[in-house]
C-alpha cells in the first residue's frame, strides 16, 4: 500500500496539475524573493518606472526599478501567463515550459505588465480573422511579445502629445502582433529548425520593417546599455541553487528511469523537439537543471555579471531545455564564443557578448545534429553577426540573438550539409 501510494503521488506530480503547479510555484517564488529585496513602497515605485521605461535593448529592470520590482514584474507575468494556459486548458508540454520561462526571463529586461498585452491582442485578432480559436496561436502570442518594446518606445520614448503616444503605441503593438503568426510559420523554413528562437528571427524582420518607417520619418532612437552590476554575490548562488533543485527534483521523480535522460541527451534538439512529450517530465526537469547549471558555470567562470539580462538568458536556456537544449549541444556554442574572444576585438565580459553567449545557444541544434566542431563554428560566427544586426531593428526585438541565429543557421547549415554530402561520395 505504501509503495502504490508513493507511485500515485509521483504520478500526480508529473501529471497535468503537477506541471501547472510547477510553473505557478516558479512565478510565486519569484514574487516572494522580490518582496524580500525592497519595501512595498519601493517595489510599487520601481514597477511604475519599469512600466514607463522605453524598453529597447538593453534595459536592465534591476537598474530601472530595483531588484525587488524586477522580480515582482517577472513573477506576476509568469503567474498570469501560466493562468492563461490553464484557463485555455492547454496540455502542459515542453513548449509550454519554454514559453513561460522565456516570458519570465525577458520580464527582467524588456517585457512588463503593460507592454505585452498589445502584442497579445494583435495575435488574438489574427486568430479571430481566421475564425480559429486563440488556443491555436497561444504560443505564438507568448513568444511574439519579443516586440513589446515597440509599444513602450512609442508610448513613452517620443515627445508626442499623450493621447497620440498611447494611440500610436497601441496601434503598433496590435498590428505587429497581427503580422507575426503567418510570418513565423513561413520563416521556419529559412533555417529549417536549427534556430530554436524562430520567433526572434521573425520579430527581427518585422521590427526592421517598423524601424525603417520610423527612421524615414526622422524618429531615431539612440542606442544605449542599461546594465547593472554588483549582484553576483547574491544572484549566482541563487541561480545555482535553483537549477540544482530542478535537477534533484527530476532525479527524485524518476528522471533516470528507463534511460530517459540518457536518451534525451542523444536528441539533436532541432525544432520541434518537445522533450516532455518525448521523454516525460522528470527527465526534462533534470535536463533543465543540468543545462542551467552548465550555463551558470560558464557565466561565473567567464567573469560575467548576474543581473536582469543575464538572468533572462539563464531562464531562457532552462526553458528551452524542455524543447531542444542540453549540456551536450550548448557547450560547443559557448566554446565558439570563447574562441571568438581570443581572435576578435572584444571581451567575454562585454554586456553584448555575455548575452551573445547565453542566447546564442539558440543554435544548439547545429551542434546536436552535426557535431561539436560545427557547434563551435556556429558560436564563433554568431558572436560576430549578433553585434551587427541589432541596428536593423534598433533593439525593438528583444530576441536579437534569435534574429542573428536565424541568419547564421540559414547560411551555415546548407554549407555544412553540402560538404557532408561531398564527403559521403
UniProtKB/TrEMBL annotation:
Coiled coil: none annotated. Keywords: Membrane, Transmembrane, Transmembrane helix. The chain crosses the membrane at residues 21-44, 64-88, 100-125, 137-156, 163-184, 196-213, 234-261, 355-381, 401-419. It holds the Pfam family DUF1576. This is DUF1576 domain-containing protein. It comes from bioreactor metagenome.
